[in-house]
Amino acid sequence: MVAAIIVLVIELQGSLAVKKTLLGATQLVHPTSNYTSNLIVFYVLDILDKTAIVNTNSSDITYVYIDVHDTLKYTFNSTQCNDPLIGDRIYSRKYLEKLLPKVLIFTPDLSMTSVAQIIIDCSYTGRLLQDTTALMLHFINENATTITTLFLQTIQMNRITKRLSLTCGMATLSSIELTTLSIDENSLLLTSQTAAYTHVVGIDFPYVIPAFELILLLELDELTANGMWQGVIATTNEPILLG
Question: Keywords for this entry (predicted)?
Answer without folding.
Answer: Signal
